Amino acid sequence: MAVGIFDSGLGGLTVWDALHKRLPEVPFVYLGDNAHTPYGVRDADDIYALTTASVARLFDAGCDLVILACNTASAAALRRMQESWVPADKRVLGVFVPLIEALTERRWGDNSPPREVAVTNVALFATPATVASRAFQRELAFRAIGVDVEAQACGGVVDAIEEGDMILAEALVRSHVEALKRKMPHPQAAVLGCTHYPLLEEVFRDALGPDVTVYSQPSLVAASLADYLARHPDRIGPGTEAMFLTTGDPRRVSSHATQFLRREIIFQPA
User: Fold this and answer.
1) Which CATH architecture has domain 97-216?
2) 61-115 pLDDT, tens per residue?
3) What is the per-residue pLDDT across 198-234, written as a single tens digit (0 to 9) for each?
4) 154 is catalytic
5) How far apart are CA 81 and CA 77, in angstroms?
6) Class of residue 230 by CB neighbours under 10 A (exposed 0-12, middle 13-18, buried 19+)
7) Which of 8, 170, 206, 245 is 20–30 Å from 179 (CA)?
8) Which of 70, 147, 177, 180 is catalytic?
9) Looking at 194, 220, 221, 225, which residue is catalytic?
10) 170 within 8 A of 200, measured Cβ to Cβ
11) Is position 194 annotated as part of the catalytic site?
12) What architecture (CATH level 2) is domain 3-94+218-269?
């Protein structure tokens, strides 16, 4: 009954933590492609190749359903995977859907025409690859009109987090928020469009100010998956063992993961 969680590195652990708390009875298999992180500076074909290789490993681990807890992979590879690669008996879902649902206050299956929504000025903080893909804006446009999205590519933040340099990561976040505010002085909402960023959510909130609603993905993804599994219990795979896998150095990755989540996390070689 295992469900897979994939991320380019450690950021997806924020999603794992929320999922584990929401669905403690489900064994999650987490795979971090730490050997190739960050994805945010790679081209779409490279991201696709790396993502499919890791998802295939999660299928092998008994996961019939895999969550791409990586916005870059969701933006650059998911649609192509779903159209031409994912087997008929498997499912791969991204992390944009719950975010769009929350912003537009409409379910994904609602295919009515786009309409005006409460939020009209949105700041998007994401990796360079996610920003370049414009996947967030494209999906939002299917469901809402009149929303101005200003995207800020947050170069260097993922690298700093993966290296465990949270002082540098915080400084970079504040710099990127300042850059965004020069383009959009008064955003109503901010989207943390990378699952690494919730590790610095309080820094984002402080830099943005109290009048900005911050949308962070882990809790939204957890609620969405709980609802999905309630409607599709057959999508839980045959695997029974929860585990953490990495393409990188297990000892180093385990140390950083334990530091981030403040609980012991032990990774195994993928």
Assistant:
1) 3-Layer(aba) Sandwich (3.40)
2) 999 999 999 999 999 999 999 999 999 999 999 988 888 888 888 776 677 788 8
3) 989 999 999 999 999 999 889 899 998 998 888 888 8
4) no
5) 6
6) exposed
7) 8
8) 70
9) 194
10) yes
11) yes
12) 3-Layer(aba) Sandwich (3.40)
